[in-house]
Amino acid sequence: MPAQQKKLIFCTAGVLSLACALGAAAAVGTQLWVRGSVLCSTGALLVNASGPELHKFIGHIQYGLFSGQRVRQCGLGGRPFQFSFFPDLLRIIPASIHVSVILFCSVLIVFALVSAGFFMLNAFGSPYETLHGPLGLYLWSFISCSCGCLIMILFSSEVKIHHLSEKIANFKEGTFTFKTHSEQFADSFWTILVCSLVHFLNALLIRFAGFEFPFSKSKDSGTITGAVDLMY
């Protein structure tokens, strides 16, 4: 492939990696990871609410990795409540999983920036043979893509398996019991998914530029090696 086309491919991959780093950094600081609604089951059972009356007992909740907001509604109007995971909710959430999600988000941002820098270096500079070359580009893209996948798996398990929304809704509630009515992942969660897909795309762009995947052997090298072995 001509050098100009390789430069264009590397520049495109570098810009995509930089956009992923900025997008992931913005996603980490927002409260737009999960949106949902919670039902005040205690209040609804007390008045035997059903149909249109049930909406008076449905509150709302949204949160991110560090803080969030819930609207407590038990038939007497909505009462907003701001909360933070550290240190307020640290005792009721799966702390190890939550800290791991934050850690992998940090690693994703760092290696996305590293990947963007090395893509630009390969486009405009004179890359070194190993970590700055094709093998390094595959490595940074693989690490970033893997971190994005781990973030989604761990956070999904925290929300769905450990019922994170329900634990948050019942935080400091002694009288009323809340149950999750509906919940869905919001924009920041899907931003991490897009980042993972972009880094996978970057690996394909490296291959499209003419570089072999790591640990792959070409047929020509195998043929030459076999011919040399026959000579001896």
What descriptors fit this protein?
single chain, 232 residues, alpha+beta, five-stranded antiparallel beta sheet, 7 helices, elongated, disordered C terminus
What would you note in describing this structure?
- By secondary structure, this protein is of the alpha+beta class.
- The protein contains seven helices and five strands; from the N terminus they run αβαβββαααβαα.
- The protein has a five-stranded antiparallel β-sheet with strand order 4-3-2-1-5.
- A hairpin with a 4-residue loop joins β3 and β4.
- α1 runs antiparallel to α3, α1 packs antiparallel against α6 and α3 packs antiparallel against α4.
- It is elongated, with a radius of gyration of 25 Å.
A few lines on this structure:
The protein has 232 residues and is an alpha+beta fold. The chain is built from 7 helices and 5 strands, in the order H-E-H-E-E-E-H-H-H-E-H-H.
Give the helices and strands, then pairings:
Layout: H1 3-28, E1 34-40, H2 41-47, E2 58-63, E3 67-73, E4 78-84, H3 95-124, H4 134-161, H5 164-169, E5 178-185, H6 187-208, H7 219-231
Antiparallel strand pairs: 1-2, 1-5, 2-3, 3-4
